[in-house]
Amino acid sequence: MTNPILSDWTTPFEIAPFDTIADSDFSPALDTALEAHNAQIDAIADNPDAPTFANTVEALEAAGEQLDKVLSVFFTVAGADSNPTREELQRDFSPKLAAHFSGISSNKALFQRLADLWARKDDLGLTDEQARVLMLTHRGFVRAGAALTGDADTRMQAIKARLASLGTSFTQNLLADEREWFMPLSEDDLEGLPDFVVDAARAAGQEKGADGPVVTLSRSIIVPFLQFSPRRDLREVAYKAWTARGANGGETDNREIAAEILSLREERAKLLGYDNFAAYKLETEMARTPDKVRDLLMQVWEPAKARADVDAEILTQMMQVDGVNGPLAAWDWRYYAEKRRKAEHDLDEAALKPYLQLDRMIEAAFACANRLFGLEFAPLDVPLYHPDCRAWEVTRNSQHVAVFIGDYFARGSKRSGAWCSAMRSQAKFPKAQAPVVINVCNFAKGDPALLSYDDARTLFHEFGHALHQMLSDVTYESISGTSVARDFVELPSQLYEHWLEVPEVLAEFATHADTGAPMPQDMLDKVLKAANFDQGFQTVEYVASALVDLEFHDGAAPADPMATQAQVLEGLGMLPAIGMRHATPHFAHVFAGDGYSSGYYSYMWSEVMDADAFAAFEEAGGAFDPDRAKALEENILSTGGSREAEELYLAFRGRLPGVEALLKGRGLIAA
Ligand SMILES: [Zn+2]
Predict the structure, then answer these.
(1) Spatial separation of the C-alpha atoms in residues 533 and 549, rounded to whole Å
(2) Is 20 contained in some domain?
């Protein structure tokens, strides 16, 4: 019998036939797919014919079709609907896949063919897109160390293996420290905490086998505890435990691991011919150089710090009114900021929620895509991996564009957070394939399901990523959709959030679940204002972390990262009442793997562009200006990674963005 994952999918639009796939199919399908991919790679590498774009680069693009199928189905269910079998499979698959891809990137015969093509690139008669794919493929191999020989090659392999194991240790130590610590609360200690925090503390107590409620270091408990608990002594204990993760001494201490990681990264960058790791890392990003990153962060830092200084004054006075003397501490900020938020923009969440029905917000996201890009959405009845999933066929002028799947509700089998992935990416080679795109969120179920304002923003955010996939119009899959620089990929998603805030959108779609009445104007005003609250604090804690990350990688690796961190913060004039969003011993973005190392700034880089890009619509006469929408699709949403991010932005906007729109958007300068 054929494995249903590997057989031809005869479903509508060739969506994975989830109802015929069993967990026992994954492992044999992966083994078969890896073997097939290896055979394809060997055939390309060992081809006796001289290398051509078609027999090497295009052959690589076309290879691995089975692997794509297995991985897209498996990672969809492993993330959104896991079970113990799938968890075990995931532990089994990760090292297998890492070894597989590292084997390809260190295949010397294959690299020789790419290097040969690269040397003759101008004589190959390539289209712009083909030249770009050749450049990216060749560069990927070079950056992985494929061009190294002899001792340098041996050393590179050793460094990579050591970095992988250090990254895993860093994560495990952090989890161990988070799991280990909890603080029991008496019934009296619960005073002042809202119901949802009390419920979470009780549930956490049960999970820890404690007698009653406890505070843990999970962000969903510790942050609201610091926000709402009037007990300054308990806040101090909890805050100190939270910020000591990874720095408690003993076996789970991450400080020496961080130092070794930084030193190995520097060595790796130098083996590849770069001055330092930041230069290596930023080469493929839109920012390009450490100086440009620093320049952006410092332009934001100054006004953010000025705002935070003013806020610190106000909060200190509130604390004095409470009879607490002495300076505002880091465990005080969230508590007094919450009191201030309540006083200044009292927004009744319970009254707001009925206006934000999930189904109406989905309609709103679709309606904006219709007005901007002419897309239409029709429900599609196909079996998916969970009864909560819904699917739509996306068309334009009656032509099929994509399948969009929404999996919106929280459940125990889903990991936390929200994400967008393509189960199939758009491409025209080796044959035309239309995208199948999924948005996964963690909203509470209900009848009807109601969202918080943050939830609604998340829905628009993930739908922005989905548009980037669905509107993609390139030839090769490796540069399709969201396959762009990390500091560019959040532009379409963060930009789309702006349409939720367009008054006419909320007026039409934020209607009361029972009465159907639109959201009252004063509630709408409060929602929009509250979204900007405490931005001094939030910007300062983020930018401080981003600058420390940059400093670690731009120059010689520090022998004592904690000392470097302290120096950077002192140089900035960091406020004592604000901690870094992530301090070194628990900065998983930077040390658990390579993804965000010297790249933590990326979120802000994208935000600079999304604020400026939305301003382009406003300047042109409105959020639905058709010419701006056309320019956005032509230059950014359809182009994937076919050109440099900077070129794409310039083509859309005619100039590069300044930070002004971001500072206005965060309320750090006057609008
Ligand atoms: Zn995103």
Answers:
(1) 26
(2) yes
Is 311 in the same domain as 442? no
Whether 518 and 643 map to the same domain: the answer is yes
Q: Using the mean position of ligand 1's atoms as its centre, give its distance from the Cα of residue 595 in Å.
A: 14
pTM over 0.90: yes
For residue 462, indicate whether it is catalytic.
yes
CB atoms within 10 A of CB 293: 27
Q: How far apart are CA 347 and CA 326, in angstroms?
A: 31
* Residue 288 CA to ligand 1 centre (angstroms): 21
| Residue 455 structure tokens | 């939830």
- Tell me: the pLDDT tens digits for 204-233? 999 899 999 999 998 878 998 999 999 999
Q: Is 97 exposed, middle or buried (0-12, 13-18, 19+ CB in 10 A)?
A: middle
Of 43, 648, 25, nearest in space to 286 by CA? 648
Which of 560, 8, 501 is closest to 255 using CA atoms?
560
Whether 671 is in a domain gets the answer no
pLDDT at 564 over 90: yes
* In the chain, % of residues over pLDDT 90: 85
| CATH number of the domain bearing residue 580 | 1.10.1370.10
| Backbone dihedral region for residue 326 (phi beyond 0: left; psi -120 to 50: alpha; all else: beta) | left
pLDDT at 600 over 80: yes
Distance 610 CA to ligand 1 centre (A): 12
Domain termination residue (choose one: 600, 623, 647)? 600
- If asked whether residues 17 and 136 sit together in one domain, one would say yes
* Domain of residue 463, CATH code: 1.10.1370.40
Residue 191 and residue 162 share a domain: no
What pLDDT shows up at residue 219? 80
Top mean pLDDT of 155-169, 427-441, 530-544 is at 427-441
**Cα(554) to centroid(ligand 1), Å:** 26
Q: Are residues 119 and 148 located together in one domain of the fold?
A: yes
The predicted structure's pLDDT at residue 305: 97
In this structure, the number of other CB atoms found within 10 A of the CB of residue 45 comes to: 18
Inside any domain, residue 630: yes
Residues 494 and 379 in one domain: yes
Task: Based on the fold, state whether residues 510 and 582 are members of the same structural domain.
Answer: no
Cα(467) to ligand 1 centroid in Å equals 12
Residue 553 gets the label, from left (phi > 0), alpha (psi -120 to 50) or beta, of: alpha
Distance 419 CA to ligand 1 centre (A): 7
Over 170-220, what HEC string results? HHHHHHHHHHHCEEECCCHHHCCCCHHHHHHHHHHHHHHCCCCCEEECCHH
Is the model's pLDDT at 1 over the cut of 70?
Answer: no
Task: Report CA torsion sign: 518, 521, 523, 529.
Answer: positive
Between the CA of 463 and the centroid of ligand 1 the distance, in Å, is 9
Q: In which order are the strands placed within the sheet that holds 376-380?
A: 376-380, 390-396, 399-409, 436-443, 419-424
> How many residues are there in the chain?
671
Burial of 381 (0-12, 13-18, 19+ CB in 10 A): exposed
pLDDT at residue number 218: 84
Judge if 439 and 295 occupy the same domain: no
Domain that holds residue 477: 354-529+603-665
Q: Which of 151, 159, 147, 137 is nearest to 59 (CA)?
A: 137
Measure 451 CA to ligand 1 centroid, in angstroms: 19
Into how many domains does the chain fold? 4
Task: Answer with the one of 154, 175, 196 that is the final residue of a domain.
Answer: 175
- φ, ψ of residue 403 to 5 degrees: the values are -110, 135
Identify whether 2 is part of a domain: no
Catalytic residue among 266, 462, 477, 497: 462
